[in-house]
Write a structure and sequence with these properties.
By secondary structure, the protein is an alpha+beta fold. The chain contains 16 helices and 8 strands. Strands 2-8-7-4-5 form a 5-stranded mixed β-sheet, with no helix packed on it. It has a 3-stranded antiparallel β-sheet with strand order 1-3-6, with no helix packed on it. The longest helix has 15 residues.
């Protein structure tokens, strides 16, 4: 029998704190290792991963010099000695907690520290307090030579960044980040392009037409820009939004005939798989781009249904030819979705239009 995986919180175990204290003491005599460990190790076992990260930031504040600039100088020397990428998140976290009265120094530190571990959460503390001034710095970051800094310019001001608080001002007015997105619209780094696409996708949840308008101004002949546009419109594409589908060349009504869409088995138990079969034929005299998605209407505890769209296939179908697709999906519980017994309808969408449906019965027992 295999051993259970260690808890992630043990990345910040007692040994990690003692090692950090030893490293920092060797860097500067002004670092008080005794104070650091006394503060850090209190009831450490009771803390979660993120609580332990914050505990290290607070313990650094207790043990480093009272002068903020001097503390940053010590942390800069320490940064390359940290041998775990997640542990490096303590560096920007320290800045986000204690650097508000030293704006320029803090912005410079975040640009440095993000190269070790992303500073996207910490910079939001400055956006929350001084939006315009921080966005001004981030606009400059969007032209930086370093891809980590450019990504920070975009990721840090996402209006709905996962695991962080929302930036309501940017949810209300996305125009404020247009210069940053524009500067990064054809970035050579995939790391950066993913961030730009995710940022745009965030905005589509509140201002879909704004996103479509800004993408409409970009040169989609550029492969990098086209990639960003598709990623940024993915939620709209899944929902069958005609203008979003048009951006990726699938805006026209699909000229196809569905010969068969079926699901086996008709009854499935939790933990088992369903298999979906789709058979379509083009009725067009020219090739056509097809975006094929499917929606599972999950049964809710109260008896209604909740739809979830999944990607199936994007294909250029030659004229008068057929396409057969098979897709399997396991019906299992996740932390984000708990299944309930009952009849589940599955809808097939082609270029945003519902063209076929079938159902299966899920048993929880």
């Amino acid at each position: 029998m295999s051993e259970p995986l260690p808890a992630l919180k043990n990345w910040f175990d007692e040994a990690r704190f003692r090692k950090s204290a030893k490293q920092l003491s060797a860097i500067s005599a002004d670092f008080d290792a005794k104070k650091f460990l006394k503060h850090a190790l209190v009831a450490l076992e009771d803390l979660t991963l993120m609580q332990r990260l914050r505990r290290m930031s607070e313990s650094l504040h207790v043990a480093l010099p009272a002068n903020y600039r001097a503390s940053l100088d010590i942390l800069r020397i320490w940064a390359p000695q940290i041998d775990h990428s997640f542990i490096t998140l303590v560096l920007p976290d320290f800045v986000g907690l204690y650097g508000h009265d030293h704006f320029k120094e803090s912005m410079n530190a975040l640009a440095e520290f993000t190269c070790y571990g992303s500073a996207e959460f910490a910079v939001r503390e400055f956006l929350k307090r001084d939006l315009q001034r921080t966005l001004g710095v981030m606009k400059k970051w969007s032209k930086d030579r370093n891809e980590h800094v450019r990504r920070l310019a975009c990721e840090g001001c996402r209006p709905r960044l996962p695991w962080s608080f929302r930036l309501d001002a940017l949810i209300k007015e996305p125009e404020l980040v247009r210069p940053i997105l524009h500067n990064l619209r054809a970035d050579a780094s995939l790391y950066v392009r993913k961030s730009v696409g995710n940022h745009l996708n965030d905005i589509t949840k509140d201002h879909p037409e704004w996103v479509l308008a800004i993408i409409g101004e970009w040169d989609l002949e550029n492969a990098h820009t086209a990639w960003i546009a598709k990623r940024g419109l993915r939620t709209l594409i899944k929902s069958g939004h005609p203008a979003a589908l048009a951006v990726i060349g699938a805006g026209e009504k699909a000229q196809v005939k569905v010969h068969d869409f079926s699901i086996v088995p008709e009854k499935v138990h939790l933990g088992e798989r369903i298999k979906m079969h789709l058979d379509v034929t083009s009725t067009a005299s020219v090739a056509q781009k097809l975006v094929i998605d499917y929606t599972i209407n999950y049964v809710k505890k109260a008896g209604g249904t909740s739809p979830k769209v999944f990607k199936w296939k994007e294909v250029v179908l030659p004229p008068l030819t057929s396409l057969q697709l098979v897709k399997e999906q396991r019906m299992q519980n996740f932390t984000t979705r708990v299944h309930h017994a009952g009849k589940h309808r599955v809808d097939v969408m082609i270029n945003g239009e519902l063209l076929a449906s079938d159902d299966f019965n899920l048993s929880i027992e």
